[in-house]
Amino acid sequence: MTLISDLFWAYLVAITLLTITPGVDTLLVMRNTGRGGLRDGCVTSVGICSGLFIHATLSALGISLLLVETAWEGFEKGQNLNKVGMKAQDTSELFFQDVKVPADKLLGSMEGQGFFQLMAELPAERLQVGLTAVAAAEAAWEWTLDYVKERKAFGKPVIAFQNTRFKMAEMKAEITAARVFCDRCLELHLEKKLDIPTAAMLKQHTTDLQCKVMDECVQLHGGYGYMWEYPIARAWADSRVQRIYAGTNEIMKEIVARSF
Questions:
Q1: What's 169's domain CATH number?
Q2: With CB atoms 3.0 to 4.6 Å apart as the test, which of 116, 126, 141, 210 could cross-link to 199 if both were Cys?
Q3: Whether 154 and 210 share a structural domain
Q4: Sign of CA dihedral 73, 54, 85, 143
């Protein structure tokens, strides 16, 4: 157990991007010195990492990925940012000022492969987001079912009202359908057949559903659903970013539309 824990923390990494427009474009800044690279910039990423996968433009060959260690001179971790949700996952500013990157820190066998390396993993990333979205929706539904069975209004449990039963039934059907889609995409992934448009459909559909379910479940909790002590309130806050990272859902729709 200790060995696994030590290895986990030793190799925890994050992918950081310099973005112009959030979720869409990527600004890549790198000065080549012949001795390795010098990089200036500021990004935001997970703050507890011991190493970082960093985008860089090394030459006319295009984008390459470099491994930059946080112990190197010129790297500085800024303040943690106060996010709306996902409080357990710290996000902080990371500053790079003339960080010297040795040539042997190139990820891959040759320069210019960074974009393709990242694109190759996007379906898997979006599958992971989809699986998380469905699991969160399932948990929220279970919490809400327990609550409406216990909570009483006008002398009877909230589940006794037709509107409550209909809402719960609608959510159950939609969540079940999303779970089947997720399972199919997982099968495709294991067979190395999950393509970019299908993964985009999964990410867009499941995260939209997650946010819809969270909102409905908060409503069924009433005022208590807006209290931070209740798990549904924290899950509601956590869910919103799912439609933003790993490619915004608007971009997911564009990817699907381009596959027609």
A1: 1.20.140.10
A2: 126
A3: yes
A4: negative
**SS3 (DSSP) at 2:** helix
pTM score: 0.82
- Note whether 39 and 96 are within 8 A (CB): yes
Owning domain of residue 16: 2-112
Sign of CA dihedral 27, 96, 30, 101: negative
Which runs of consecutive H residues, i.e. helices, occur in the chain? 2-10, 114-150, 162-190, 196-221, 231-239, 249-258
Q: Which of 112, 130, 148 is the last residue of a domain?
A: 112
pLDDT of amino acid 20: 35
Domain boundary among 112, 132, 160: 112
- Average pLDDT over the chain, rounded to whole? 82
Task: Read off the tokens for 21.
Answer: 């427009």
Catalytic residue among 93, 125, 174, 254: 125
Domain co-membership, 48 together with 171: no
Confidence bin at 55 (pLDDT 50/70/90): low
pLDDT tens digits, one per residue of 138-188: 999 999 999 999 999 999 999 999 999 999 999 999 999 999 999 999 999
125 part of the active site: yes
CA atoms of 73 and 45, how far apart (whole Å): 19
Question: Cβ contacts of residue 258 below 8 Å, gap of 6+?
Answer: 197
CB 246 within 8 A of CB 127: no
